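Predict structure. Input: Cytochrome P450, 440 residues.
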Amino acid sequence: MYHLKSRTPMGQLNSFRKDPLAFLERGLDTGEDVVRFRLANKRVTLIMDPDLIKQVLVVKEDAFQRFKPYKELAPLLGQGLLLSEKPLHKQQRKIVQPSFTPRHILTYGEEMRRKTIDSLRGWGKKEKRLLSDDFMSLTLEIIASTMFGADVLDGKEQVGRSLEEAMELITKRVRSFFKAPKFIKTKENQQFQKAIDTLDEVIMKIILNRKKTGNRSNDLLDTLLYSQDSEGHRMSDRQLRDEVMTIFLAGHETTATALTWTMYLLLTHPESYLKLQAEVDELCREEVPTMEEIKEMTFMRDVFLESMRLYPPAWLINRMPIENIQVGDVGLRTGETIMISPYLMHRHPAYFDNPEKFIPARFKQGKLLNVPDFVYFPFGGGSRICVGKHFAMTESMILLGALIKNFHFTLSDIEYIPEKFPLVTLRMKDGLLVHSERRF
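Output follows.
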C-alpha cells in the first residue's frame, strides 16, 4: 500500500480537480495495488488489484453503497436505476432487465437500422461534420424510439445542449468541497435547474402521450407503466419519471461517447480503418448492416472493445463501505471513499503489453485473453453491471458499420490530439471534426 502525502488542508483535492485522470495515473505509477490519499477531509482508497475489485463489486457488494457526492445527480436522475440503493435497485432492475434480453434487442435492431438509414440519407455528398454531435443526436433518436416509442426529432438539439450543461455542472459540484446549496439562486444553480426543466419537459411529454392514448406497446415504457409490485401497486409517477430519465440519458450518452473515441482511433490508425472497411464491404449487402451481418463482423467487435479499453465511458466507479470491513488484507472504514477506475485497469502494465497503444488484436472473437476478471470491465460489474450492455454493443456496431460502409472519413485536422474530458462519462472535450465523403 502506498500513501500519497499532502501537508495542505485540502489534501490532494486541487490536483484531482485539475486533472483527475493524470492524478489517478500517479497512483498507477507507484506500482502498488492500493493507494491512499486525502481529498480535503475525506480518506480515499484507490484499488488497482482485480481480486480486491471483485470483492468490492461482487463478493461483498452488500457492504457498500454508491458514492454520496454522486447524489448531485439526484435532481436529474432521482431514484432511477443508476442511483437507487437496495432493495429499490433490485426491484427496479428486475422490471427493466427483460427489455434488454437478446430477444428484445433483435426487434430493436430493425428500428436502429431504420433510424440510421433516415439520418444518413440527410448527409451531403462531401462535407465537414462534427461527428461527436452526430452520434449524440442519432443515439438519442434510437433510445427514444426503441425504449419509449417516441420521436424527439424536433427537440433533440435542445435536449443535447441541456444534457451537456447539466453534466458539466454536476461534475463541477461533485468535485467541489465548497458549493452553494441548490436552494440558493446562484447563476450555476439556475442554469442547472433550467437544464433539468428542459429535460423533464421532454420526458413528461413522452410519458403523458402514452398515458393519454392508452396504446400498449412491447417496449420499456409499457413495462414501466404497467408493472406491479408484490402487493399489486404500480410505480409512482415520480419513480416512473426517474427510470425513464435514467434510461433516456444514460442510454445514449455512453454509446455516443464510445463511438466518438472509436472513430478517432480508426482515423489515426489507417491500417485498422482499411481492414474494417474491407470487412464491412464484404459482409454488408445493404447500406446499413443487419443483425445477422454484425454477428459476422468480428474485427469490428474487436475494434470497439479495444476502443473501450483505452477510453471507457464509465471511467471511474466509486463506493462507500456502510460498515468497517476487511477486503483482502486492506481494512476499509465506514464512509470512506473507494475508487475503482476501469480507465486505470485497462491501461495497467501488469496486464497489457504497450498499454497505451491501440491494438484490436488483443481481442479474439470479442474476448480478451489471458487477463483476470476485473482487469477489463467497461460496463462495470456485480449487480450494477450496465443493464443495456448488449443493446449498446448492437447499436454501436450497426452505426459504425453504416458509417464505414457509406462514407470515407478523414480528420479535419490531421494533427488533432483530443483532450480527454472526464465528466460523468469520459468525453472528448471539443468533439470530433471530420471530412466525410460518400463512397457510392
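The chain has a mean pLDDT of 91.
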